[in-house]
Amino acid sequence: MRFVSIVCALTANLPTYNLRILSQLALFSTANSACSALFLGYDEKKRKHEYKMTHPAHRLGAQGESLARQYLIRRGYEIVASNWSTRYGEIDIIARANGVIVFVEVKTRQDNDTESAFAGITRAKHERLLKAVYQYLHERELDEARWRIDAIGIAWQRRDQPIIDHIEDVFDW
Questions:
Q1: At 159, is the pLDDT very low, low, confident or very high (cuts 50, 70, 90)?
Q2: How many Cβ atoms sit within 10 Å of the Cβ of residue 81?
Q3: pLDDT at 95
Q4: Is the CA virtual torsion 77, 81, 86, 89 positive or negative?
Q5: Tens of pLDDT along 42-86?
Q6: How far apart, in Å, are the Cα atoms of 160 and each of 62, 110, 122?
Q7: Which phi and psi angles does 22 have, rounded to 5°?
Q8: pLDDT per residue over 94-119, tens digit each?
Q9: How far apart are CA 2 and CA 9, in angstroms?
Q10: CA 126 – CA 170 distance, rounded (Å)
Q11: pLDDT at 61
């Protein structure tokens, strides 16, 4: 236990990538210290990230978001941010078009049409998305800015090109 505490004190100011090397030390300690919590927390974040990148649904979602960004750029949108996270959830794409801030929810499904993708935007998702949008605007002092929320539904078919449907101002339909 004393060794882990000393290592923690010595490495407290090291960059995050150095903590990876030392993270196993905390696993061998039964000490209930802030240091071991820091190491264990780092490992947990890493595991969650690795899961997201290897799980088929997350890979499909990431591919859909990439396709949606390309789609928006071809139509003259300027991409401001991607995967902007808050405690309320994530905004997939934030863009600008004609002086309007556009928050884009992307839903991707392996299907023949985009209907099931759009069905994934539930009332609860709508409320979380609105809270995230308000937080984004407030943090950037854009409370008076013009904005809207769009949705892009993507249907990946087995061997065909994906179908992309874009609905502007989705919560006004």
A1: confident
A2: 12
A3: 98
A4: positive
A5: 445 444 444 455 667 788 889 999 999 999 999 999 999 999 999
A6: 19, 11, 28
A7: -90, -5
A8: 999 999 999 999 999 999 999 999 99
A9: 11
A10: 10
A11: 87
Task: State the average pLDDT over residues 150-155.
Answer: 96
| Helix and strand totals (H; E) in the chain | 6, 5
Measured CA to CA, the distance from residue 113 to residue 97 in angstroms comes to: 27
Strands 147-156 and 100-110: parallel
Whose tokens are 């960004």? That residue is 69
The position carrying tokens 């696993």 is: 27
Q: Measure the CA–CA gap between 109 and 106, rounded to whole angstroms.
A: 10
Element (H, E) at 146: none
Please tell me the distance from the alpha carbon of residue 150 to that of residue 103, in angstroms, as a whole number: 6
Q: How far apart are CA 170 and CA 105, in angstroms?
A: 9
State the virtual CA torsion across 61, 67, 69, 71 in degrees, nearest 10: -140
Beta strands in 16-97 (DSSP E): 78-86, 89-97
- Candidates 130, 121, 131; CA nearest to 152 is 121
Q: Identify the residue with better confidence: 27 or 143.
A: 143
Q: What is the C-alpha to C-alpha distance for residues 169 and 133, in angstroms, rounded to an integer?
A: 13
